[in-house]
User: Fold these one by one.
Assistant:
Number 1:
Amino acid sequence: MDQLRNGRQVRKHRLGFPCCRKAYSVLVFFVTCVLGGTLTQRSPEGQDVFSEHFPRLDWQPTRAPEAAEYAGKVSCGQCHAKEAATYHSTPMARALELASESKILKSHLPLKFQSGPYTFKVQRLGHELVYEVSDNQATISEPVQWVFGSGEAGQTFLIQHQGAYYESRVSLFSDIEKLDFTLGHPRTVPDSLLDALGQELSPDKVLACFACHSTASVSGTKLQLDRMVPGITCEGCHGPGGRHVRAALAGKVEEIPMFNPGKLSEEDQLDYCGSCHRSYLQVELMGLRGVNNVRFQPYRLANSTCFKTEDSRISCSACHNPHEARQRHSAFYDSRCIACHSKRQVDPAGPSKVSICPTGKAQCTVCHMPKYKLPGGHFEFTDHQIRIVRSNSDYPN
Ligand code: HEC
Ligand code: HEC
Ligand code: HEC
Ligand code: HEC
Ligand code: HEC
Ligand code: HEC
Ligand code: HEC
C-alpha cells in the first residue's frame, strides 16, 4: 500500500497538482505563456494542457504543423490493412461530418421540437439541410453546415448566422431519436429567437470544436478548413504521414517512421488520448466537480486506486483498441482486470500487492465501473474511476 501511495505521490507531483501548488503555478505559467505561442494553446476551457512529460512532438493530435504533408484518408490502408479494415466505421472516424453526408441525420428528417413559443425544425429544403427556429412573429433559417458527433450519443449542428458560428440549441439524441436541448445549454425556454438558434461561439471555441473532431483543421491558432479532413483519421493520431508513405513506397520506411502511441508510458498515453478526451490537468484547471466529469476518462482513470504510472496494464489501449469500435460486453474486460487481480499476482512482498474480489468472478466492470447519465443527457458514460461502489456513497470527485 505504501508503495502504491508513493506511486500516486509521484504521479500527482509530476502532474504538479495538488500536492505542490508552487510547481502547479509554475507549470500553468509555463503551459500558458511559454508554449502559448507554439505548440500548445490554452483556451479558456483549458484546452491542450498536459503534464510536463507529455511528448513534445512537432505536431499534436489537435494541431497540425504548418505546411505538414498529409497523405489522406485512404492511403494508409494500402499497407496497414488490418487497422484500416475496422477503423473507418468507428465513432472516432465519424466524429464530424458534412451535413449533406450525415446518414444518421438524414434518416431522421424532418425533426421538430417545441419549447414555449419557439418551434425548432431540421428539414430538407431543396438540396440543403436547414435548421429553422421560429416564434409567432419571426423565423431564422440557416443551412446546417457541420454535424458534430457520430451519433453514438448525439449530434450537434454548427450553423453560421450573420458571419458568426453558432452551436445549435438543440441536438439529435440517438437513444430517443429526437431533438432535445444540447448538453451544456440551458434547458429552459429560450429568451429570444437568437437564443433559440444557439450559442454564439468565440473563434477560440470554433477552433477547439474542429481541433478535437477532425484532422489537420487547426495549425497554430489558424482554422484551415480547406485542409481539414472531417473526423479523426489515422494521421490525427499518428501525425502527418506523407513522407512516411513515400519512404515506405521507396523501401526506406525506417528513415521516416511514424509516431506509435503504443510506445508511450502509461501516464503520457493518458495525456495523449487526453488531448481530446481531456487530460488530468485540464480537468483540474476546469475545476469540474461532480458527475459532469464522468466523460473525462483520463481524469477518472488516474484517480483509481488501480492506476499506477508506468504500468501499461491499465493504459487506455490496454482496454481499447483505438482501431476498433469499443467492446460493449463487460466480459471482454475481465482479462484486463485479472491481469492484476489474480492469485498469481498476490505476493505480499511484491511491489504491487493486489486483492481479489470476495464477491464476483466475472463481469467486473458491471459492478466496479458504473454508468452515469449527465444531467439532461441521454447517454450513459462509464465511470473510469475503478472502485468499490457502495449503494449509499456519493459520486467521488
Ligand atoms: C507503402 C506502405 C505503407 C504505407 C502507405 C503506410 N505505411 Fe506505415 N509502415 C509501413 C512499414 C513497412 C512499416 C514498418 C513495419 C511495420 O511496423 O509494419 C510501417 C510502420 C508504421 C507504424 C508503426 C511505427 C512503429 O514504430 O511501431 C505506424 C504507426 C504506421 N506505419 C502508420 C502509418 C500511417 C498512419 C499511414 C498513413 C498515413 C501509413 N503508415 C502508411 C508501410 C506503410
Ligand atoms: C477537447 C476536445 C473536444 C472539444 C474542444 C470538443 N469536443 Fe466534442 N467530443 C470530444 C470527445 C472526446 C467526445 C467523446 C466523449 C464525450 O462524449 O464526451 C466528444 C463528443 C461530442 C459529441 C457527442 C458525440 C457522440 O455521438 O458520441 C458531440 C455532439 C460533440 N462532441 C460536439 C462538439 C461541439 C459542437 C464542440 C464545440 C462547441 C465540441 N464537441 C468540442 C472532444 C471534444
Ligand atoms: C483528435 C482527438 C481524439 C484523440 C487524440 C483521441 N480521441 Fe477518442 N474520441 C474522440 C472523439 C471526438 C470521440 C467521439 C466520437 C463520436 O462519437 O462522435 C471519441 C470517442 C472515443 C471512444 C468511444 C468510441 C466508441 O466506439 O464508442 C473511445 C473508446 C475512444 N475515443 C478512445 C480513445 C483512445 C484510447 C485514445 C488514445 C489512444 C483516443 N480515443 C484519442 C476524439 C479523440
Ligand atoms: C485514436 C487514435 C488512433 C487512430 C485514429 C489510429 N491509431 Fe493506430 N495506433 C494507436 C495506438 C494507441 C496504437 C498503439 C496500440 C497498442 O500498442 O496497443 C496504434 C498502433 C498502430 C500501429 C502499430 C501496430 C503494431 O502492431 O505495433 C499501426 C501500423 C497503426 N496504428 C496504424 C493505424 C492506421 C492505418 C490507422 C487508420 C486506419 C490508425 N492507426 C488510426 C492510435 C490510433
Ligand atoms: C480497465 C479497462 C479500461 C481502461 C483502462 C479504459 N477504459 Fe474506456 N471503457 C471501458 C469500459 C468497460 C467501457 C464501457 C464499454 C461499454 O459498456 O460499452 C469504456 C468506455 C469508454 C468510452 C465510451 C464512453 C463511456 O464513457 O462509456 C470512451 C470514450 C473511453 N472508454 C475512453 C477511454 C480512454 C480515453 C481511456 C484512457 C484514459 C480509457 N477509456 C481507459 C474500460 C476501460
Ligand atoms: C495494473 C494493475 C491493475 C489493473 C489492470 C486493475 N487493477 Fe484494480 N487495483 C490495482 C491495485 C494495485 C489496487 C490497490 C490494491 C488492492 O486493493 O488490490 C487496485 C484496487 C482495486 C479495487 C479496490 C479499490 C478500493 O477502492 O479499495 C477494485 C474494486 C479494483 N481494483 C477493481 C479492478 C477492476 C474491476 C479492474 C478491471 C476493470 C481492475 N481493478 C484493473 C491494480 C490493478
Ligand atoms: C456483483 C458485483 C461485483 C462483481 C461482478 C465483481 N465485484 Fe469486486 N467487489 C464487489 C463488492 C461489493 C466489493 C466490496 C466487498 C466488501 O468490501 O465487502 C468488491 C471488492 C473488490 C475488490 C477489493 C477487495 C478487497 O479486499 O479490498 C477488488 C480488488 C475487486 N472487487 C475486484 C473485482 C474484479 C477483478 C472482478 C472481476 C473478476 C470483480 N471485482 C467483480 C462487487 C463485485
Number 2:
Amino acid sequence: MPVPPRTAARPAPPPGLCGGCAHQRLVPNTRGSVFSLCERSREDPAYPRYPSLPVLSCAGYEPRPERSPGGGGDALGL
Ligand code: SF4
C-alpha cells in the first residue's frame, strides 16, 4: 500500500467557533500550514494558545466584525 509523502499538506480541520471569532489570529508556518491562535490566551491562561479544532463551545467567543464582500475564505475561517 502506498504511503503518502510526509510533506503532503493535510487538509485544515474545520475551525468551529474560532473561524468567526474576533480573537482568532491565523499564524502560518514555513511548511505552509496555518494555525489558529487564540489572542485571549495572552491575558487569560484559561484559553489555550492553540485550541484544538473544531472549537464547539467557548465562553470567550465574540463574533468577528463583518468583512467586505469578496474577501474570500478557507477552512480556518479566512
Ligand atoms: S475566544 Fe474561543 S472562539 Fe475565540 S479564538 Fe479563542 S478559543 Fe476560539
